[in-house]
């Protein structure tokens, strides 16, 4: 039987009305309140008091069948803590560190960043992604008590490039919005290649994350991430390897115009076959980025470093890069003027690039 109840939430002075089953326990009610109102802390310390019955209810008590009963819930107030935040603001490529209160709301943090860096964009449209929690934070939630947290702030709509491989025969590039789900990519691939079967039986594996991705998960901000899609029967054959590219992946488009997302680039494939693909891991303090770049075999090592700095929008007068390719160090002038070919660096080489800031870097503390 469903009963109307009113809950007064203290110290937030908030009144909520619920329709709930009479056999709902107090503990279930408290957990529901915590999740709905996004209140940090342990509900074991909360107190639930019935105004009509004039008693305190235990966590295992049922709320009962008194209609329109007023329940007063006293939450343990979250203790304020100082936390260290490392931020990356995109696409401006601004990086900084500062301390903030754990009770700071995300929207307060975004407004502070807007003022600090004199950004004209409306911060209410920004998105804040926590690399520690692997999720996007809501504007009205508190930063929480993770002592050190890496946040990526997106000040406008970002399109991320992904490299897709189906079986051993098909590869193509896409550019997708950050809110694109894996299943939406599946649907477009299925429609374009006229595949049969249930996409719920397909799998998507990320080489960079070294894990399978959930069908409902959204793509992350790793630019150039390689995704391996395995179809229902795990076999997908075609006569020739070819490469295609999506136009901007618009999640509002229907399957009827999915084919318009694909364009063939045969010349691009031929050019890539003549180049070397480098798998680059960029380290800057606690921030780690993944990047895939193509280079001519005759590219000097120094030009690889410059290309990475350009990607980060970092001036050479501000920082330099320590390069390690397949475990070997390439940081002296003699090595830097050598080409990839001369150094024996081949396709799919692993590159670690460590940003070394010069004295000109300014960081908030």
Q: If you had to describe this structure to a student in words, what would you say it looks like?
A:
The chain is of the alpha+beta class. It has four domains: 2-74, Ubiquitin-like (UB roll) (Roll), CATH 3.10.20; 82-154, Ubiquitin-like (UB roll); 159-272, Roll (Ubiquitin-like (UB roll)), CATH 3.10.20.90; 274-357, Phosphatidylinositol 3-kinase Catalytic Subunit, Chain A, domain 1 (Ubiquitin-like (UB roll)). It is 16% helix and 37% strand. The protein is built from six helices and 22 strands. The chain has a seven-stranded mixed β-sheet, with helices on both faces. Strands 2-1-5-3-4 form a five-stranded mixed β-sheet, with no helix packed on it. Strand 11 and strand 12 form a beta hairpin. It is elongated and about 85 Å long. The relative contact order is 0.09. Mean pLDDT is 77; it is low at 234-273 and 360-365.
Structure in a nutshell:
The protein has 365 residues and is of the alpha+beta class. It has 6 helices and 22 strands.
CATH superfamily of the largest domain: Phosphatidylinositol 3-kinase Catalytic Subunit, Chain A, domain 1
Radius of gyration: 26 Å
**Major beta-sheet overview:** 7 strands, mixed
Helix content class = 10-25%
How many strands in all? Answer: 22
Low-confidence stretches: 234-273, 360-365
Sequence of secondary-structure elements: EEHEEEEEHEEEEEHEEEEEHEEHEEHE
Number of domains: 4
The average pLDDT value, as a whole number, equals: 77
* N→C terminal distance: 56 Å
CATH class of the largest domain: Alpha Beta
Number of helices: 6
What is the approximate shape? Answer: elongated
Strand content: 35-45%
